[in-house]
Amino acid sequence: MADDKDEILGDHRWQRTILVPPLVDSVGGSMQMVRWARERMPDFLWIALMYDAVGGKRTVDIAIACAEEAQEIHDGGDFVLSSDYDEFSPSEFSSLKEALDDDVLEDLFHGLEPLIAHYPSYPKASLFDETPPEEDHHLGYLAEIVNELSDRRSHLSTYVQGIFVGTLMATGGKMISPDSPLADINEVFRYPDTEKSRELASVVRASTKATNASNEAEENQSDWARRFWQRGFEITECIFPQEDKEAEEQGTHPDQEFFQNLAAIGHEYETELRTTLLDLWWNAKHDAEFTGKHEVLDGLLLRQVNLATSLAGTPAMWSHDIGSIILRCMAETHITLEWLSQEGDRSDYQDFIEYGLGQEKLLLEHSKNVASEFPNEEVGDLEQGLDDLERKIETQRAMYLLPVDVGHWADKNTRELAQEADCKDVYDMRFQQYSAAVHGQWNTMDKANLVTCHNPLHQYHKIPEFRPVYKNPYTVVEAGNLMNRSFSSWIEAREINAEDPQIPDLAGSVKQFMRKWNDR
Q1: Are 426 and 506 part of one and the same domain?
Q2: What superkingdom heads the lineage (predicted)?
Q3: Whole-angstrom distance, CA of residue 190 vs CA of residue 206
Q4: Which of 235, 257, 275 marks a domain boundary?
Q5: What angle, 0 to 180 degrees and rounded to 10, lies between the N-to-C axes of helices 474-493 and 320-343?
Q6: Cα–Cα distance between 408 and 175 in angstroms, integer?
Q7: H or E stretch including 14?
Q8: For residue 228, which of 107, 111, 165, 146 has the smallest C-alpha distance?
Q9: Under a CB-based contact definition with an 8 Å cutoff, are residues 446 and 462 in contact?
Q10: pLDDT attached to residue 290
Q11: Has residue 21 been placed in a domain?
């Protein structure tokens, strides 16, 4: 049996159930991701504001002047980043203010005015005797700068990182060899117009990462960065994505007709599918020995029919959440059907039945245990239901002889069943993909239940998606594809002798409709 461990992500190393990337593996798993925008960007914001206010050359001069004078006053630190100045005492700020030229202080105040006005805890605010008034345009301007700076590869971010690295070089915080690409650091201001500037930009970004990686602090985010984001929530509100409220309120959403037509295709498909299935089933053989084979196969196919047709005719179920859960059920059902069709013998069908009945027996015992804790007069309906369940089990297996298996009915996991039945593609591309929705994992909530806040001062965090769920018609296409495969497997397993049975094609009908709709 082929093992796909050697085929997919082959450069990763297996550590129990985890695939560890090569770089992380090489450093013993101690490497942590540094999120530029959230953890590092607030420290570089002052450089971006100065660049926008007075240009690159003047910003370099100011950054060097501040760093050199600060290093004379306070031992330790490069004093290029905003958070470096959190270590300064009031008296040290007074000394720094006296050491800096008046024109430097004037330019600093002018460039940092929006930041100082709205973020009183900004470290360098102590350089100034007064706090500028809050202007209406300040927050919008800050949001624009933060938005561009959040992209580490943007023009502004590249220039800012170049100024940072250049200042470190000028003040002794970073030593380079004469033949280093960084020797011509000013070339970064020509980014991205020349090949040399593009190569230098890559080196600059790597140097900025390396500078952060050398910091052995437990957390990558500075105190100032935390204060910056917290203040953003205090002074601004979340911004939801735009939505067509008027159309939704009036029931005239432009997609309404589209989804109604698709649902009509689903209803027509259900009628044709059930008619076709009934005709084929009447011509199928009977299981005179009552092995359970035909019952299991028929049950699995009808499960697929019910899932596919319920999905196809109900647009509300085409969301990522609900649609994925149904498709995951269909994928697992198909793998079971395919494995039983190709590999199953009489004992496997019996095991499948006994496993399910064993689960009912276990549920029955749990329910009886819960019911025993309530007064008799409060469990009348429940007791009747438990009696009915017990009789239903007894009609198929004697309770005292029925084992309860808490593992998997086939002593194999779903992946192994898919491999043996030669339908591993269903497992890889459907079962695994849609399992996230069943278990409520982050990757499905991120798509279905959350949206990105459009406020740059909130660092584009995730907020609840309060709007009606997005309907994805390709969910119906997926259901149709799985239904076709399961129907074909069932016909083969049931040894139905029918010449070229015409199975209704839901996937084909939906795709044809969407092509015509798009061509209107």
Answers
A1: yes
A2: Archaea
A3: 18
A4: 235
A5: 20
A6: 62
A7: strand 13-15
A8: 146
A9: yes
A10: 84
A11: no
Same structural domain, 459 and 313:
yes
Task: Output the CA–CA distances (angstroms, integers) from residue 33 to 8, 10, 24, 161, 215, in the order listed.
Answer: 23, 22, 10, 18, 13
Query: Would you state the pLDDT for residue 2?
Result: 45
Residue 16 in any domain: the answer is no
Boundary-marking domain end, from 211, 235, 259: 235
Label residue 461 left, alpha or beta by phi (over 0 means left) and psi (-120 to 50 means alpha): beta
Question: If DSSP states are collapsed to H, E and C, what string results for 384-396?
Answer: HHHHHHHHHHHCC
> Are the beta carbons of 469 and 452 closer than 8 angstroms?
no
Q: Which of 292, 308, 278, 306 is nearest to 340 (CA)?
A: 292
Res 377: pLDDT:
61
Whether 13 is covered by a domain: the verdict is: no
For 138-150, give one letter per residue: b (16+ CB within 10 A) or e: bbeebbebbbbbb
- Identify whether the C-beta of residue 161 lies closer than 8 Å to the C-beta of residue 208: yes
Note whether residue 305 is domain-resident.
yes
What is d(CA 156, CA 51) in angstroms, rounded to the nearest whole number?
8
Q: List the structure tokens of 257.
A: 């007709």
Are residues 259 and 231 part of one domain?
A: no
Q: What is the DSSP string of 182-196?
A: GGGGGGGGGTTSSHH
Q: Is the peptide bond before 192 cis (omega within 30 degrees of 0)?
A: yes
**Beta carbons of 107 and 245 less than 8 angstroms apart:** no
Closest residue by Cα to residue 59 from 111, 96, 99, 95: 111
Strands 18-20 and 450-452: unpaired
For residue 19, give the H/E element and its range: strand 18-20
Q: How far apart are CA 337 and CA 489, in angstroms?
A: 7
Specify whether 349 is located in the same domain as 389: yes
Q: 121 lies in which domain range? A: 36-235
What is the pLDDT tens value at each position of the chain, 520 positions in all?
445 554 677 788 888 878 778 766 665 655 455 688 888 999 999 999 999 999 999 999 999 999 999 999 998 889 999 999 999 999 999 999 999 999 999 999 999 999 999 999 999 999 999 999 999 899 999 999 999 999 999 999 999 999 999 999 999 888 888 888 899 999 999 999 999 999 999 999 988 876 654 444 445 689 999 999 999 999 999 998 875 454 444 444 457 889 999 999 999 999 999 999 999 999 888 888 888 999 999 999 999 999 999 999 999 999 999 999 999 999 999 999 999 999 999 999 999 999 999 999 999 999 888 878 777 666 667 778 888 999 999 999 998 889 999 889 998 999 999 999 999 999 999 999 999 999 999 999 998 899 999 999 999 999 999 888 888 999 999 999 999 999 999 999 998 887 777 889 999 999 999 999 988 7
Could you tell me if 259 and 227 lie in one domain?
no
**Domain total in the chain:** 2
Q: Write down the pLDDT at residue 296.
A: 96
Residue matched to tokens 């997609």: 255
Do 207 and 349 reside in the same domain of the chain? no
Maximum CA pair distance of the chain? 102
Q: Are residues 267 and 222 in the same domain?
A: no
